[in-house]
């Protein structure tokens, strides 16, 4: 659990982390499970804190102190963003592989549908976009931020997640299209892949927020982070 930390006088110190263990910390309640569209193997539930007391051994102090706790947490998100893009890439690549095998077997008008140019072009575009996404992921995983201070580079992590997540949604959708009605059936994994991959433009920073991260680097300026407008330079 991450939350604001205050000293004994009530002055805010920053953001800290707290290790709370289910069935061991009174006041920690796991609420109802949220019925999600996809990724159902990872349950989403409500977390309720009902007068939970925080013992000293539960407190995680950031390396640079509570004052930099939020910044440290946001930097950890950069790694998560690359990881999310990698998972999306794996889902879409699997959908592409399945569709390649299917079009070689599925026959219409006396021949495999792989012989039709429209199908060939769809597969070619899917393969090309997957390779571009894979390259962005590789670049992000080997990058560091300005001055070599951050890993991975926040902008490259954002670019990789934006492009990969959006590309993989399109690839999964095209793969289902190649399966036709068979892909729409819940007896086929294509519909599950389409549901699962949809999360990756949302979780870990939406595609819209991440575009602001990229634009900030492109323009070399801090973009609005509050209702009042631009942050001081």
Explained architecture:
The mean pLDDT is 89. This protein has two domains: 2-61, no CATH class; 68-219, Butyryl-CoA Dehydrogenase, subunit A, domain 3, CATH 1.20.140. The strands form three sheets. A three-stranded antiparallel sheet has the order 1-2-5, with no helix packed on it. Strands 3-4 form a two-stranded antiparallel ribbon. α3 runs antiparallel to α5 (189-197) and α3 (154-179) crosses α6. β6 and β7 form a beta hairpin. It has helices at 69-105, 117-141, 154-179, 181-184, 189-197, 207-219; strands at 2-6, 12-18, 28-34, 44-49, 59-60, 107-108, 111-112. 49% of the residues lie in helices and 13% in strands. It is built from six helices and seven strands; from the N terminus they run βββββαββααααα. With 233 residues, it is of the alpha+beta class. The chain is flat.
Number of strands: 7
| Strand ordering within the main sheet | 1-2-5
Under CATH, the topology of the largest domain is which? Butyryl-CoA Dehydrogenase, subunit A, domain 3
Overall radius of gyration: 22 Å
Poorly predicted segments: none
Structural class: alpha+beta
- How confident is the prediction overall: mean pLDDT? 89
- Quickly give the CATH architecture of the largest domain: Up-down Bundle
Q: How many distinct helices?
A: 6
CATH superfamily of the largest domain: Butyryl-CoA Dehydrogenase, subunit A, domain 3
Largest sheet: 3 strands, antiparallel
Distance between the termini: 31 Å
């Amino acid at each position: 659990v991450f939350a604001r930390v205050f000293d004994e006088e009530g002055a805010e110190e920053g953001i800290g982390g707290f290790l709370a263990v289910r069935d061991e910390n009174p006041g920690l309640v796991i609420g109802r499970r949220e019925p999600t569209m996809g990724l159902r193997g990872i349950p989403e539930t409500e977390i309720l804190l009902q007068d939970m007391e925080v013992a000293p051994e539960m407190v995680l102090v950031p390396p640079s102190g509570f004052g930099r706790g939020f910044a440290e947490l946001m930097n950890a998100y950069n790694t998560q963003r690359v990881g999310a893009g990698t998972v999306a890439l794996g889902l879409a690549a699997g959908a592409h592989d399945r569709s390649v095998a299917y079009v070689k077997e599925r026959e219409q008008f006396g021949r495999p549908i792989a012989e039709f140019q429209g199908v060939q072009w769809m597969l070619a575009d899917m393969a090309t976009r997957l390779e571009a996404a894979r390259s962005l992921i590789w670049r992000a995983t080997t990058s560091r931020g300005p001055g070599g201070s951050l890993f991975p580079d926040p902008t490259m992590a954002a670019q990789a997640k934006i492009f990969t997540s959006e590309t993989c949604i399109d690839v999964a959708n095209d793969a289902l299209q190649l399966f036709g009605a068979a892909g729409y059936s819940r007896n086929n994994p294509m519909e599950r892949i389409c549901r699962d991959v949809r999360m990756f433009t949302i979780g870990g920073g939406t595609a819209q927020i991440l575009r602001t991260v990229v634009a900030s680097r492109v323009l070399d300026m801090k973009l609005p982070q509050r209702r009042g407008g631009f942050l001081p330079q």
